[in-house]
Amino acid sequence: MPLPLLAEHFARPPDWGVWILLYFFFAGLAGGAYVIATLVRLRGGDGPVARTGYLLAFPCVLLCPIFLTVDLGQPLRFWHMMVNTSPGGLGLNFNTATPMSLGVWALLVFGFFTFVSFLAELGLLPFLRAGVALGTLFALVGSIFGLFIAGYTGVLLSVSNQPVWSDSPVLGGLFLASGMSGAAAAIWLLGGRRGPVAAGDFEGLEVAAAYFAVLELLLLLVFFITVAIAGSLGTALRLPWTLLWLLALIGMVLPLAGLGRRGVAVDRGGAAVLTGNATLVSVVVLVGVLALRAAVIGSAQ
User: CA-to-CA distance for 39 and 30, rounded, in angstroms?
Assistant: First the structure.
């Protein structure tokens, strides 16, 4: 007896392509990088991990509205996403019941937090560096928006009526865990490749990256189970998306394997330096993060 379908899909696919894929990717990195930097600062770390996280978040956020406006097809009308232009409805276009509206405004607010923290790390706003009371409070509030941005794109897909996307309630959590994992890889890749590093910060980052990978794997398993129950597993796993799922899986498993261990050692001068396959593993993880989003977006269209 065939498995009953638990969902009906009637909406046309949005035909999202590379611009939305890049938006989803960099939004995850931005939110994850900001949150990781704040967590490191909260535990007293003031080395390259936190600094790189804050410096990375703002450029990633800056790219997101560019990708969104280019995808519109009529970039000059991007402001319509924030201003209601319908007859008799002039005003801010803010609707708490619409995920797209919430996402646009959250991105704008988070962009403000990342910009200010970016300036603080450059030494232009020293009174707002995290670690100072005001800076810590500022970063904590910004991190709330960072978590929202990192997971929001997955939630946006879940509330659609597309097969695969709407068949699982865990896409938001999966994209959040994936964004944190990708941000950890990007920070590792950019933050400690030259000169001495803060050993404790990078060791903590490696442990955190392993937890993110485990969470990703668990959520991916739940995703496949729920999609299978809905009858859309064949859609999600058809070629060429199968290859992208494999890339995503490798990016999750490698940080947990002995081959992918990234370590910290002490050089002859007594300074901590990064060892192991740091560059290779970080690149593979980032490719996996991108592949995960490409597989989710592409398989439903």
Answer: 14
Helix (H, G, I), strand (E, B) or coil at 273: strand
User: Mean pLDDT across the stretch 8-16?
Assistant: 62
pLDDT tens, position by position, 145-197: 999 999 999 998 998 888 899 999 999 999 999 999 999 999 988 876 544 55
Give yes or no for a contact between 207 and 255, defined as CB atoms under 8 angstroms apart: no
Most confident range, picked from 156-160, 201-205, 217-221? 217-221
210 half-sphere exposure, CB direction, 13 A CA radius: 12
> For residue 79, what is the DSSP state?
G
First to last CA, the chain: 28
CA angle 183/277/36 to nearest 5° reads 20
In a 3-state reduction of DSSP, which class is residue 150?
helix
Count of alpha carbons within 13 Å of 187, Cβ hemisphere only? 37
The model's pTM is 0.85
Q: Which residues touch 224 (CB under 8 Å, ≥6 apart)?
A: 233, 236
Closest listed residue to residue 64, CA positions, set 118, 15, 109, 24: 24
- Give which of 172, 182, 181 is closest to 152, Cα–Cα: 172
Contact status, residue 163 vs residue 273, Cβ threshold 8 Å: no
> CA–CA separation, 142 vs 34, rounded Å?
8
Distance CA 44, CA 220 (A): 33
- If you search the block for the tokens 């668990």, which residue do you land on? 218
What structural domains does the chain harbor? Answer: 18-299 (1.20.1630.10)
Position 246 scores a pLDDT of 96
CB 192 within 8 A of CB 48: yes
Q: Helix or strand or coil: residue 130?
A: strand
